[in-house]
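Bit of a strange request maybe. I'm writing a small parser for structure token strings and I need a real example to test against, not something I typed by hand. Could someone generate the tokens for this chain?
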Amino acid sequence: MSKDMKNLVLENYIGGKFLPCSKLIDSFNPSTGEIYCKIPDSGPEEVDAAVTAAKEAFPDWSAKSPAERSKVLNKLADLIEARLEEFAQAESKDQGKTITFARNVDIPRSAYNFRFFASSVLHHTNDCSQMDHMGCLNYTVRCPVGVAGLISPWNLPLYLLTWKIAPAVATGNTVVAKPSEMTSVTAWMMCQLLEEAGEGFVCVSGTDFLVSSSQGFPPGVVNIVFGTGPRAGDALVSHPDVPLISFTGSTATARLITERSAPYCKKLSLELGGKNPAVIFADADMEQCISTTIRSSFSNQGEICLCTSRIFVERSIYPEFLARFVEAARRWKTGVPSDPSNDNGALISKEHLQKVKGYVALALAEGAQVHCGEGVDNLTLPQHNADGYFMLPTIISGVKDSSALMQEEIFGPVTCVTPFDEEEEVISRANGVRYGLSATVWSRDVGRVHRVARKLQAGLVWTNCWLVRDLNLPFGGMKNSGIGREGGKDSYHFFTEVKAITIKH
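Reply from user aminoacidic:
Good idea to test on real output. This should exercise your parser:
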């Protein structure tokens, strides 16, 4: 794998080979605003070649036992972990996130995704029922679907790409994946490891202990096509030989995917945006609540679909909470991503930075108060990073529930704080958006946290914590936050088709 991460020109990975593309797109380093690499501007021709390769690889790969596929996934996890620092440096430079976040979150979780599904696929069971009076035995089997089309976003590039690839291939599917055109480098680096993923293995099968060599991922099992949504993404979701689409991204894009895939009745898993509330009652552990809500609001520059962007605080503690929260936000360091002491790096692009800043301008126009961050505090950067896409954590109060700041996903380091009086009132206000991905509840009252969690319209509710994840449990949202769930059993069901078989004896 090349150590030179300057002036990279990426190639598609199709049928086990790196193939150049005649058209290229510039990709920028968010911390400097400079061109970092060039990626393929793939279209229908490249997507069709990848789908053809995946179709040809499917019979042999789907015929392998779960144990054989599991070994290959575990080996790939080993290879990623062995190159953790190299992957972390590339992810930080490509996405703008801090090197600390990439080292501690993105790359370890990417490797763990393969480990988790390598284990999970070995432990699923099927259903069986007897009908003795009919002389029949009924049971179910699950079969891989075929070629899985996977589209991942730019905020957690390798983390969310592997979250899709791992269960797809573990269950016997082959894949054509399209990462975001803004963050493609670590996907390209992973492709260089795929052939190595079987080296050094022997597979033992059956009671006779037949030994055979494992060859890693055979050509065509994993194909990566780089490019934009309107070209490569559209060609993938509308391809007649791709029966399944897993997408993480915006609700607007998901609507287009639904329309384009509808003529083919594809299986869809759509993990979309959020406008996630924190509900903080007067009996909350203030210190723990503030430190965690700082993380939940501003981690990864606020570019996580689970980030808190609406904070409802019981009125009796509102002044104290707001003062201490602003003070804590000012201690949350923003700066050059390569500095391990920084908490936040740069936002993904110039256009996205302008969009996020636009919400702050709207807040001021509506008469809201900006307590810290954008337009209030100064950010000093090295000269080399002066054109980077940086923004300080920004806290706003005095925003109406009907405002775009409280209704739309901002996806940046901006959060709004507002007081409430009654439990039923705050539940209604927290639910008063079109999204329903996640929520947090802060209270020492056990009965209350159970009661409120049940009433909140969110696919995930954390109480007195944030982003604690058991990958066995379902992940996904309600309302405009998505369709379907991902996780141990849920991913197994999505990436397989169930078949009921009846045997009469």
